[in-house]
Structure formats: C-alpha cells, structure tokens
Amino acid sequence: MIETMCKITCAVPEFLAMEFFEHLQSDGRVHLILADKPAADAAAAERLLALRSKLLAALETISSVPVSEQETVPPEADVLQNDAEQILDASLIEVIPELEKSVEVFQKDASEVLKNHEALVSEKKLLEMILSQTDKTSFVSSADKRALLWWVPENLWPAAQRHIEKQITTGHAQYRLHPTAKEGQALAELLVPVQAAAETEKILRSIGAHPWMPPQRYQAADFSDSIVLMKKRLDEIERQLDAEQSKLAKMRRQWQPRQEAFFFLIDRKISQYEALSRCRRIGPSVVAEGWIPLRQFSDFKAKLEEKFGGRIAVYSRLPEEDEYPVVPTALSHVKAFAPFEIFLKLVQPPAYGSSDPTALIGIFFPFFAGCIIGDAGYGLLMLILMLWLRCRSKRRIFRDAAYVLISMCVWSLFWGCAFGEFFGDTGHRLFGIEPLCVERSQAVMPVLIFSVALGLAHVLIGLLVGFFRGVRSRHKRHALEKLGEILVILALVVVLTAVRALLPSGAFPAGIALLITGLILLCAGGGIGGLIESMSSFGHILSYVRIGAIGLSSAILAVAASKFVDVLGVSVLGIFIALSIHALNFVLAFAESGLHAARLHYVEFMGNFYEAHGTAYNPFRYRRNLPWKKDS
Prior knowledge:
The protein has three domains: 5-103 and 245-324, no CATH class; 135-211, Alpha-Beta Plaits; 338-615, no CATH class. It contains 17 helices and eleven strands. The protein has helices at residues 17-27, 42-63, 77-90, 92-133, 157-167, 197-206, 223-277, 294-308, 358-373, 376-392, 396-419, 426-431, 444-472, 476-499, 507-543, 545-568, 572-605, and strands at residues 5-13, 31-33, 145-153, 174-179, 185-193, 210-211, 280-282, 285-293, 313-317, 328-329, 615-616.
C-alpha cells in the first residue's frame, strides 16, 4: 500500500535550527525538501568534512588491526557518545582544531607502529622461507672437516659426486642431496676434508653450481653458523611481534570507540549543516519543508511540541495533484506481504497516487513458482534450508529473500501433493504416494490449459487494477482503454467456448456484441495504439504456458533420475547418478521457477498498471552503517 503523504512546513527560529535538525535526524520520519544552493556556513562545514575524512582514515587503519575478543572490549558506547556529543555541543568550532591535532597524533603513532610491524612480518616471512630450505641440513664444520652447501643441477650432480670422490685422496666425504621447489635444482650438502675443500668447490663450479648464500646480515664463516643466526633472529622477531601486537591492541582499545563516537556525531553535524544551508530563510526564521506519512503526522507534531514547547510553527496539507510527481512514495504493508517489497527494489518506485503491486505479488508469485516446482520433496528440503537461513541472517534483505523462498516452498508442498511428486516418482515407489489431482507428466494438455487459464485470470486482474487506477485518478482515456482490453479478452473467450459448444449457442452473439463494445472502448481510449496493445495482451496470456511447460520438464527430469536406478540397480553408480540428477534438477527447479514467475509479474502483469517513475521515500535520519568496515 502506498502511504498517503502530507506536506509539512516548519518555521524555526534560527537559534534553534541546529537543534531542530538534530531532532529530525533522531525522529527519522521526514523526507526533507532541500534546495540546491551554497552552504550558509561553508567554513564550518568544510572543517567538519576534512575532520570526518581524517577520522575515517584513522578508523580504517585501526580497524584493520587483528586483536582477540578479550582485547577489544570497549567502554560503554552510549557513555562515549554522550561525552563526544557534550564536547561538540559545547563549542563545535573551537573543538575542531583539538580533534584534528588528536587524530594527526594518533595517525603518526599508528603509522610508525604499523610500519615497524609490517617490516617485522616481511623479515619473518623471508627467514621462514630460507630456513624451510635448510631445515634438514645437519653437517657442521670441524678442525679437519669443512661443511659446504651448494645449489647444484640435479642431472649433473652424480657426475660431480664421482669426480669429487676421485680427487679426495685422504679421508672421505659425506653427501646429502635435498630436493627444492626450484625445478631441476637441488641443495647439495657436503662434508669434505679441509684440504679438499678448494678443489671440491672448483668441481662444483664447473657444473654450473653456486654456493648457498644467506642474507648479508646473517653471513658467517660457515653456512651452519648462518642458519643458527637466522633461527635466533626468528625467535627474536616472534617476541617483537607479540610486543607490537599488544601495543596495537592497546591503541585500538584506547582510540577506536571514542573515534567511532566522534565520527558518527560529526557525520550527523555535517548532515545537519547541509540541510540547514539548503533551507529558505524568512527574516530571523529558517523554513524547513518536507513530506511525512499522514498517519504519522500527529505523533510527529506532538513530539515536536513536547521538545520545543510551541516555539516552532508547523503547518501541514495534503499534496495537490500536480505535486504527485515529486511526492516521495512510502510503502506500508502487513507483515505477511512486507518481505515482497524486495521485488520493487529492482525497479524504480511506483509513482505517488498509483498502484502498489506488492500484495498481489505476495499472493501470486509463490503460487506460480510453487506450481512450477510442483515437488513436495524439493519443497521440503528447500524449506528446511530457508528456515535455517532466516534464523541465522541478520541483514533484512537476506531475511526477506528467505521468506519469499519459504512461501514458494509451502506452495510447492501443496502442488507436490496435488501432482503426487516427492523427488519425482520416488515417493510413489517407496511410500505409494498417489496424486490428489493429476500426474502432470501424464496429463500434458490439462496442465498447459490450466497454465493458460492462470494467465488469463492474472492478466485480467492486472487490467482491472489499471482500470480502477484510471477511474480513481480521473484519467478517462486510460480507464476506457483498460476496460476495452478486458471486454475484448472476455469476448474472445466467450466466442471460443461457444464455438467449442462449451456454452449455450446464445452465448456466441453475446460474445460478438461484447467484442464490438470492447473495440469501440479501445479506440476511444487508446486509438490504434490501444488496438495493438490489446493484441499483445493475448501474447501475455499465452506466456503463462511456461508455468506448465517448465514444470513438466522438471517432473520428467526427476522421473529420469529414478530410471537410472532401474537400469543400473541399487548400486553405488546408480544411486550416485540419480542423486546427481536430483541435485541438478533441485537447483534448476528453484532458479527457473523464481526467474519465470518474476518475469510474468514484471512484464505480463505489472505492465498493465505499474507506473515506475516515483521518488523513493528517503527520510532525514541517522546513518548507522560503518563505512570503514568492508563487510557492512
């Protein structure tokens, strides 16, 4: 239902203007009418905008710090907000420089800590990568032995190993080859006599090998000593990171709650300044105009009187017809139909004074979608999933979508019983379930005729809504055109049924008379365009065949899944293929039923009366989202 709106005009003494706009924000029911003109107090607004940007940057920085739940317990949010509000209200302009300085100090401190933290993390990753290559090395140099660690080509290492053994005349060498992530490269760990070390290195270089080198700050006489130094440094980095993490957590506890409170309050002050600057002024008064639902006006006026004690004059009136294009459209529905407003979020709001299709969508959409699904097993499974999702979801759009799907599931249970379908014919095979009406896979023509009959009824309802809309708004030509379309459709139905001898023979002349009357009204209301439009209505009615056709294809696919069990037997392969087909059919059934049922409403139904050029109702209220949180 589209709410009846009233226009309010408030004359506010200038010294109460900011308090008045703050009250409007907290009340959150008035859609303000604001003119486009420069701010009256540009300096204050610009300083606040700059401060908000700095606070936002600071909050994005501090919110990115990962800390445990025990470390993020903030002080009482309401207390912080009240403190911040008192500071801002006491002397807004004087406190801005102090806040700016405070934010700059925080950003400088946080930047230094985060920069050091990032450097430590980078060094830690480097050391972990290097040590992962050398974690299996164990040779250590001694007085008569020299430990070596070289990168060698894997395919040339066996020949180099034999050559090294031939060169060693006293003592013996030890070898270990460690595979690495480098393709064709390995780490060769050697322990050779000291006197053979130089010749060994010469042989390794001859095959294109090169020594393993640690970062410069960890280089030592022996690679094993370098590894020890890196391990010690890694332990030191872990301790430093823990200390940095504690420092960041402390900064977040101290800064974030208060900065959030200041951000929200400054954001509100900016909105109030902007609204004030775009209102008319008459002498020492500010004139604020806006729209509010008529049923809420009395309560709004009473609260305004209670807060300001009659110092603000309020005038109200209903909109004139020539104002309808600029009147915002506020929608109100009973609880059962409110979630179906989600369909109107995909199109422009209905024009004020026109017709709201939400309730009719709430009735027909799940009815049509459930008929297309027509399987109680699929409906029951989806119903369980959607009930779980609706209980877990916090965002309204997800809860509304789940509610819409739940309503589809309820109707699919009904149609599943009517068609006798429970995961195709599985219910019949296992439990002996029989259809209450018809088995749609065996009654193709009755199902298609029923679908067309649904389309006829649905399109006629849409035309009736359009007709009453024309009568109510005194658009005679529009009303005549819609009435003519209704009569033409009914006339052709009467003529066709009379030809098929489904009605008495006297119905044929009555149908012809009705057809002539309808054509006259069509020409009077819409001219040649009206005649063409009436022809498209028949195409719209035939489009509803998709309800039966898509449902039949889904039913046949579900039955086909059971056939694989018949062919392959109750085997792993047979059950797997059957379940795979049912899973595919389950997804397709709900996706296609939703898409096609929605299309029937957007095109065939709403096209008969919906005027999508309204203005969204956007009351002046607090912004409650958190712009520095990417998931909000």
